[in-house]
Design brief:
With 1122 residues, the protein is of the alpha/beta class. The chain folds into six domains: 168 residues, no CATH class; 164 residues; 185 residues, no CATH class; 71 residues, no CATH class; 150 residues, Rossmann fold (3-Layer(aba) Sandwich), CATH 3.40.50.150; 193 residues, Adenine-n6-DNA-methyltransferase TaqI, Chain A, domain 2. It has 40 helices and 32 strands. A hairpin with a 5-residue loop joins β2 and β3. α1 runs antiparallel to α4 and α16 crosses α19. It is globular.
Length: 1122
């Protein structure tokens, strides 16, 4: 069957015809109906002929697809005509509302064709808006292998549903397949373990470099792959006569097979002698074919660093021929992989994607490569530094909302929904129109010209790229011929000759408009910081690739018309964002310092476009000015120790190396005065990103972090909370912070200071809790988006929680607007984030009931922490043996249940016991003993020799517990925490429950069982009534609304959360029906009988207790929409 389909797909690729298309569709679905009706097109679509309503497909769920074909009057390319083709497809769908989606096939006289799936994203409950389209495209050309299209369409899966068709156009599947193949080749170089399907590979590593440590090998490999992929994209960039920027004679399997040592003979010269050198300045050997067609790029991407090991001897040969080796076979395998996939130089968007390897995909690939296993730590570099690649849909949403807030404030109107709606339309890829007049257009473009955006943990550049593309979209709509923006770009070029050259190249050439837009946006607006040097390099690479895809190749111009890439050393820096420079006294000699900073600002602007000798001169000027500024600070007698330390750090910073700075300062590194002492008008307009998730407790050294006096610093906290505070500090007044981070701060204890910071120091605007939705593929962290303004809190936060475990099918913006609720009066307490109906239900529960922590006669406790369970936990057989030899030991051997023994209503006693040995046992009641006591140990050994002997078998491990306390505060044989103030409560009737679970598991015990620290318990009055309510669906529904989800979709049922559950305080008489049902359940559990009937009856009683309506009950039971 698959072979038959593949044969049809290959026939269509080799020979496009309506007959071959019909055969394929009929094989893929039995519901394809041929129509072959002529379509009449408007004059604006006269570049197409033979327009045909070719057929339709009747899908399941009463959905229908239209199938249309068009002959293009010009030859197709991977970029040609895409915009007008998409416009035509959208128009046809809007005019044929009976169709939910469509196949649109555009073919040329050569038989190349573009097959697009286009459909509209409904705005909830199937409502069609016809304003939010998606297009996914295969471009089929005889110049390509087309293997992705052939393999995908040859799958047996039928086109019976729209979902199955969308799956056949999945960019994600292609990206994953490509990454898996590249990852294997990465590990082939570096060595290590790699899963390949069901197989586990253990590779030695074929890469040989002079500094053969694990980190250097991996960074070398990431850098090599980055440059090779960049070069492969250059190979796909062609002039109008079809000549590539890099030919097959240099970069291909054919070229590799002709070389004895492909890396040293071809790749090193390509990188470091050709792409990095102006054509006229190249060595004679690299001035002729095939090298002469390769343009000079600039930008530093191909400048050899220390860890490139590029040094030549007097014979022009590498000094590292024997110490740096990459087998030719490895390049052959890599190029085989490259050849299996279509590469496109066009950049995908969330609304319009080609099923191929595009520049945007590189971010995800490299973010994964940066997360490769570090064998020394047993962790991953990016996991250790806590970052994850953010999906494009999330990036676009955050960028959109941040830009809307910024522009809304800049346009000078009172904030209103109508203006924000107009701005959203401006940011919509599916809508080419806008509603702004000339005055507003100038105001928006001027605002973009002034805009400064920082990603303080930029990783592989997802957010900087997202900002670049959205600002580009705005300029495309408001300034379609790019005259206004070009003027602003030229204004930034101070050198008259350079400005004239740039103007001559860019003015009047519409094909270079996007190039002009991107150059200006990057120079004026975008900044990034990351602690990993290699991440900064990848961010730069993505900027370079995004620029060069919009260059125009012109054979007769210098450098084939390619403008040298900008220098981004003052746009992206490797540094520790959280640690600033020492507080320096810069007031003395202020004017000379300000003068230096002004000159540095001019130098940065000059350096951005410099190349060759101009670039080297600019670097020399920077270093000289750096030294001069340092001298002023070091020699002035008015300067204190901190100021001189400041001087030492700034003079030691080298932005042109690949070394990460231990500090970050936006004034020194970017020329932007931002921080805690800035004026209201200084700082960034937007700080956006995905800060790292790193437990502070796991960090090797937090000394400097503590010294920085962050309000959100908590010993048990996480680094991302400090990034929130740092981000706000870097903003100017009314600036916008937009982060996606772990959602634990919302309700964790360590989040209290963060919640207080947001409530008192910011104006929170939008909060989306993704709850159980797994946003990051490789991470178990659950996240939220927070957008806040650096302003006084106006108490106008809109929030919602995403229901279920997947992102909504509808647009995220629409989902939020539909489900948001106004979150009022938030403070340092737990933030209860939920949806509209959920909010109403929880508000009703809060109104009717009283949180358990306010019940006077209920107390909460945690189980015992032994520090070494295998020493203190014993079996019944061991217990009997000890008691037989020494009957008085029985008093200190307690029956034990662990967290995992506790089920719903009842627990399972596994005949385990705990040696209950308090601190200073057996002298625990003597007041005078405050530390570990030798006297106590002697008496223990004499009075309880059997227990002492048993514990002595574990003495070494017991002594190594918690070394700041064991043997100091208490004896090596004592329990680490034994409940000194409450241990007698174990012997009273109590409700017990396990800490980590996917649902409520509260049980009742009145037999004096002790607990481990994986369980909690409560004592007091009304326990059976409370137990009934806690095990009800209502209580667990409420609990799930106020708590964060951890790995595996589970919850932490800790005291701080359980005590928040509100339970109505009713009379003993009103409690009796609940108590009776609990007694029945406990009796049945004792016999192993089913209790679902009684549990259902309790749920019904609890619904009445909280006065829930039928609709609210349906929501609680998961049957209704919240």
């Amino acid at each position: 069957m698959k072979a038959e389909i593949q044969n049809l797909v290959e026939k269509l690729v080799k020979n496009f015809s309506h007959d071959n298309l019909r055969y394929l569709f009929r094989e893929k679905t039995e519901n394809f109906i041929i129509l072959e009706k002529k379509l009449e097109l408007d004059v604006k679509f006269d570049i197409f002929s033979n327009a045909m309503h070719f057929g339709k497909i009747e899908l399941e769920n009463e959905s229908r697809m239209i199938v249309c074909t068009f002959l293009t009057n010009k030859e197709l390319s991977d970029k040609s005509g895409k915009k007008v083709q998409y416009e035509l497809a959208r128009k046809i769908l809007k005019e044929n509302i009976n169709y939910d989606a469509g196949f649109f096939i555009f073919y040329d006289s050569k038989g190349d064709f573009r097959l697009s799936l286009v459909y509209d994203i409904p705005e909830g409950k199937g409502k069609r808006s016809w304003s939010n389209f998606r297009r996914y495209t295969y471009y089929i050309s005889k110049d390509q292998t087309n293997k992705t299209f052939i393999n995908t369409f040859s799958e047996i899966k039928k086109f019976d549903t729209l979902e199955s068709i969308i799956d056949a156009f999945s960019v994600e599947k292609v990206t994953k397949e490509f990454y898996q193949k590249i990852a294997i080749l990465f590990t082939t170089l570096t060595g290590g373990k790699r899963n390949n399907g069901s197989k586990s590979l253990d590779m030695k590593g074929e890469l040989k470099i002079p500094d053969n440590n694990d980190t250097t090998r991996k960074e070398f490999s990431v850098r090599l792959l980055g440059r090779l992929l960049f070069s492969w994209f250059l190979k796909k960039k062609k002039s109008t006569n079809g000549t590539s920027l890099i030919s097959d004679e240099v970069l291909s399997r054919k070229a590799m097979l002709r070389a004895d040592n492909y890396y040293h003979d071809i790749i090193e010269p390509l990188f470091f002698e050709v792409l990095n050198t102006k054509i006229k300045e190249r060595k004679d050997i690299y001035k002729d074919s095939p090298w002469d067609k390769v343009p000079f790029l600039n930008g530093g991407l191909f400048e050899p660093g220390n860890q490139d090991y590029y040094k030549l001897d007097s014979f022009n040969k590498s000094k590292h021929l024997n110490t740096l080796h990459i087998p030719n076979d490895w390049f052959e395998e890599l190029f085989e992989v490259f050849d299996q996939f279509n590469f496109t130089i066009d950049e995908n968007t969330t609304n319009d994607a080609e099923i191929s390897i595009d520049p945007e995909m590189l971010g995800k690939l490299f973010e994964n490569l940066l997360a490769e296993i570090n064998e020394q730590t047993g962790d991953t570099d990016r996991k250790r530094t806590g970052s994850f690649y953010t999906p494009r849909t999330i990036v676009d949403y955050m960028v959109d909302e941040s830009l809307i807030e910024y522009l809304d404030g800049k346009l000078g109107y009172e904030k209103n929904e109508k203006l924000q709606s107009r701005l959203r339309k401006l940011l919509n890829y599916s809508d080419d129109s806008h509603d702004f007049d000339d005055t507003e257009i100038m105001a928006i473009i001027n605002s973009l010209d002034e805009l400064k955006i920082l990603d303080p943990a930029c990783g592989s550049g997802a957010f900087p790229m997202g900002v670049l593309h959205k600002m580009q979209l705005i300029l495309q709509k408001l300034d379609p011929d790019c005259t206004i923006w070009l003027g602003k770009v030229l204004d930034d070029v101070k050198d008259r000759n350079a400005r004239k050259m740039m103007e001559n190249k860019l003015k009047g050439d519409p094909e270079l408009n996007d190039f002009t837009r991107k150059i200006g946006i990057i120079q004026k607006s975008i900044y990034g910081v990351d602690i990993q040097e290699i991440a900064v390099e990848i961010s730069k690479l993505r900027c370079f690739l995004s620029i060069i895809v919009d260059e125009k190749v012109r054979e007769n111009d210098d450098n084939r018309g390619i403008q040298p890439l900008p220098n981004l050393e003052f746009k992206f820096v490797a540094a520790n964002t959280l640690l600033g420079l020492p507080k320096a006294n810069l007031k003395a000699g202020l004017f000379s310092l300000d003068d230096k900073f002004d000159k540095l600002r001019e130098l940065r602007e000059e350096f951005f476009q410099a190349s060759g000798n101009d670039k080297m001169n600019a670097i020399a000027k920077f270093k000289n000015m750096q030294d001069e500024l340092s001298d002023i600070l070091m020699k002035n007698k008015n300067y204190d120790k901190e100021t001189k330390e400041y001087a030492a750090k700034i003079s030691g910073w080298n932005p042109f190396s690949h070394e990460s700075a231990s500090w970050f300062d936006s004034l020194w590194m970017f020329g932007i005065r931002a921080g805690t002492e800035q004026s209201r008008s200084d700082g960034f307009d937007i700080v956006i990103g995905n800060p790292p998730y790193v437990s502070i407790q796991r960090m090797e050294d937090t000394t400097e972090l503590k010294k920085s006096n962050f309000e959100t610093f908590e010993k048990t906290g996480d680094l991302y909370t400090i990034f929130y505070e740092k981000g706000i500090n870097l903003l100017k007044e009314n600036g916008i912070l937009s982060y996606i981070s772990s959602n634990k701060w919302i309700n964790a204890n360590y989040g209290k200071s963060t919640r207080k910071f947001f409530a008192t120091k910011t104006n929170p605007l939008i909060l989306i809790d993704f709850a159980k939705v797994k946003i990051f593929e490789s991470a178990t962290v659950f996240v939220n988006i927070l957008i806040a303004e650096k302003a006084k809190n106006k108490n106008q936060l809109w929030a919602c929680a995403i229901q279920g475990d997947k992102l909504p099918d509808t647009d995220l913006r629409f989902y939020f607007n539909t489900n948001k609720f106004e979150f009022k009066d938030f403070n340092e307490g737990i933030w209860k984030v939920r949806n509209g109906d959920s909010s109403k239900i929880n508000a009703k529960i809060d109104r009717i009931a009283v949180p358990l922590y306010k019940w006077k006669d209920v107390k909460f406790y945690r189980g015992i922490t032994s520090g070494l369970n295998k020493a203190f936990h014993i079996t019944e057989l061991q217990k009997n043996s000890i008691v037989k030899k020494n009957p008085k030991s029985e008093e200190f051997i307690k029956p034990l249940i662990r967290g995992k023994d506790i089920k719903r209503w009842a627990y399972r006693f596994e005949n385990l016991y705990i040696l209950f040995i308090p601190w200073h046992f057996p002298l625990q009641n003597e007041i005078g003993i405050t530390n570990a006591s030798l006297e106590a140990e002697k008496k223990f050994k004499i009075e309880y020799p059997e227990i002492y002997k048993h514990l002595s078998e574990h003495k070494i491990e017991l002594s190594n517990r918690n070394q700041t306390e064991t043997g100091i505060r208490y004896e090596w044989y004592a329990l680490q925490r034994y409940g000194a103030d409450f241990w007698t409560e174990f012997e009273h009737p109590k409700i017990v429950w396990i800490e980590i679970s996917d649902r409520a598991n509260y049980a009742y015990d009145e037999t004096g069982k002790f607990l481990t620290n994986s369980a909690y318990f409560m004592t007091g009055k009304h326990l059976k009534y409370i137990l009934a309510v806690l095990n009800s669906k209502v209580a667990d529904y409420y609990f799930f609304q106020i708590t964060a989800t951890i790995a595996g979709g589970r919850k932490r049922y800790t005291k701080q959360y359980v005590e928040q559950i509100p339970i109505p305080q009713i009379s003993p008489k009103a409690q009796q029906p609940f108590v009776d049902l609990v007694n029945q359940i406990l009796a049945k559990k004792e016999k192993g009988e089913d209790t679902s009937k009684e549990e259902h009856q309790i749920d019904q009683l609890v619904y009445k207790l909280y006065e829930l309506t039928d609709n609210e009950i349906a929501i609680v039971e998961g049957k209704g929409l919240a």
